[in-house]
Amino acid sequence: PAFGTILLTGAAGKLGSVLREPLAALCSTLRLSDLRPLTQACSAKEEFIACDLAQTAEVQALMQGVELLVHFGGVAHEQAFERIAAANLIGLYNLYDAALTHGVRRVVFASSNHVNGFSRIDEATTPASPPRPDSLYGVSKVYGEALARYYFDRHGIETVCLRIGSCLPEPKSPRCLQAWLSHRDLIELVRCAATAPQAGFAVVWGISDNQQACWQGDDAERIGYQPQDCAEPWREQVERARPEMLSDPRMRFQGGSIVSRDYRKPA
Ligand code: NAI
What is the extent of the structural domain holding 135? Predict the structure, then answer.
């Protein structure tokens, strides 16, 4: 296998569960971690260590012997700031600090499209565009990408930041016509991010090959990511199923429904 030990955080989560089997194929040991118990028992190659990312000593112990960190743990939607801060600010710092201590070479970081959620839907957006987070959750991902950049520039730890759109088995809403990432493409994206010979600091939009995409200019080519799926065949179905969403004014923004939450800005 390409790796000795890979650490997968968020292993009990929606995307973590999808990634377990493909990541196990890349390594001799897949160390799984989460706050919660796993939904599915460990296979022969897997081991599970429960850990709260906010606990510095626990995270240091978790990182022992790890070659690659695939970080999908933490708060994955808008929540009270204290919880976001514990997992996504303190927790992420703990992970990078432990990665430095234990000589981890590369991190694959589940960032989010919500770093630019307040950019307009028709605005071409690249990793060089100024961040316009649409939530405190989005702000925490901007911090995450900055922390990743810092650890690369100062310490040479590589990170591939995946700005994941909407990762679901099938597109569910009109927004998915641009934001959908199929499970198959997620798996390929993470494989490319893990194994690309030279990743450096990279930012890649986590979307399938959608026709209606305003997200561009990323490092997909550098890591060799070529999506196979596309949301277009679901167009009629999602537009029929959710007609009210087509006229929602908050659909002007890239973040979609998360933007509507307590939105009070005068027109
Ligand atoms: P999820 O909520 O299903 O999984 C996250 C896991 O992290 C959970 O199992 C949770 O128990 C764990 N966690 C939360 N706080 C923790 C802490 N303090 N210490 C240790 N573990 C903790 O989320 P999902 O959908 O699997 O997302 C995974 C990652 O991908 C997240 O970072 C999320 O922000 C990102 N992402 C996901 C998208 C999607 O479409 N599902 C879209 C954009 C980004």
Answer: 3-260
